[in-house]
Amino acid sequence: MLLSFRMLLMSVHFLMAGILGVLLGLCRPFNPDNSRLCARLYALPSKWIMGYKLKTEVGPLMDKPQSCVVIANHQSNYDLFIFGNVVPRRTVCIGKKSLKWVPLFGQLFWLAGNVLIDRGNAQKARKSMLTTTRTLQEKDTSIWVFPEGTRNLGKTLLPFKKGAFQMAITAGVPIVPVCVSTYSQHLKLNRWHSADIQIRSLPAIPTAGMTLDDMPRLMEMCREQMRDCIEAMDREVMAQQGRHAPVQSDSKRKGTASHPNL
C-alpha cells in the first residue's frame, strides 16, 4: 500500500517538477544554473516522498573551482532524485540524446543548458565533446558526467569511459569525484524509512600539465578513489543499521577490478 502511494506521489511530482522546470527554462533558456535549480525541484520533494535519510559531506564539491569536470557513480534512475540534492552552481550534465523524447523532462533537460550526445553517431558525439570542452574553458561552467556510461545497478563500479577525462585534460580543468553509497539494492519504498544514503565528494584532482598519455593512469586513480570511498560509506551505513558489510579480500578486489577503456 505504501509503495503504491509513493509511486503515485512520485509520478505526480515528476510531472509537476517537469512543468515548473520547463517554465524556468523558457524564462531564461540555456542558463547554466538552471540545472542546479531544476535538480532541486526534483530532489527536495522526493526526499520526503521516498522517505530516505540523506547525509552529505560535499565541501570539495561546493567549493569547487569555477570550471571542473564532476564525475559520479551511476546506480539507477533514482540518481536524479538523490544527486539532485548536491548539484553545485553553474553545472550542466551530459546525457544521451534519447532523453529529449521524455515528455517535459527532455525539454527541461535541453532548456537547462545540458548537453545531449548521440552515442550512435561518433562524429556528432565528438563535436558535442568539443563544445563542452570550450564551455569548460570559456564560460565558468562545470560538467557533470557519469563516467561508467550506464547504470551499475548498485554493484561494483563499471569500467570508466574516457570522455570525461579527455575533456578535463584538454580543457586543463580539475576533476571532482562525487560518490553515493550503495542504495539501489537496499531501498525499501514499502517502509516509512526506506534507506540511509550518504553522498561524499573527494578533493579536486588537478589535470594541469597532463597530456592524453596520462589519461589511463588518471582514470584508474579516480576509479580507485571512488571505489574506496563507496566501500567506506557502505560500511558506515551498515554499522548504523547494525549490519556488517561484506569484506573483500585484496585478491578478490584485484580479480574484480576493471581496467579503463584505452
TrEMBL record:
Give the matching InterPro entries: AGP_acyltrans, Plipid/glycerol_acylTrfase
Per the record's keyword annotation, is Lipid biosynthesis included, yes or no?
yes
Keyword Ligase included in the entry's annotation: no
**Any one GO molecular function term:** acyltransferase activity
Residue limits of the Phospholipid/glycerol acyltransferase domain?
A: 68-183
What keyword terms does UniProt attach to this protein?
Acyltransferase, Lipid biosynthesis, Lipid metabolism, Phospholipid biosynthesis, Phospholipid metabolism, Transferase
Region (Disordered) location: 238-262
Q: EC class of this enzyme?
A: transferase
Mind telling me which CDD domains this protein's record contains? LPLAT_AGPAT-like
Q: What domain of life is recorded for the organism? A: Bacteria
Which SMART domains does this entry report, sorted A to Z?
PlsC
Q: What is its EC number?
A: 2.3.1.51
Q: Which reaction does it catalyse?
A: a 1-acyl-sn-glycero-3-phosphate + an acyl-CoA = a 1,2-diacyl-sn-glycero-3-phosphate + CoA
Annotated metabolic or biological route of this protein: Lipid metabolism; Phospholipid metabolism; CDP-diacylglycerol biosynthesis; CDP-diacylglycerol from sn-glycerol 3-phosphate: step 2/3
For this chain, the family text in UniProt reads: Belongs to the 1-acyl-sn-glycerol-3-phosphate acyltransferase family.
Q: What is known of its domains?
A: The HXXXXD motif is essential for acyltransferase activity and may constitute the binding site for the phosphate moiety of the glycerol-3-phosphate.
> This chain belongs to which protein, by name?
1-acyl-sn-glycerol-3-phosphate acyltransferase
Organism the protein comes from:
Pseudomonas lundensis
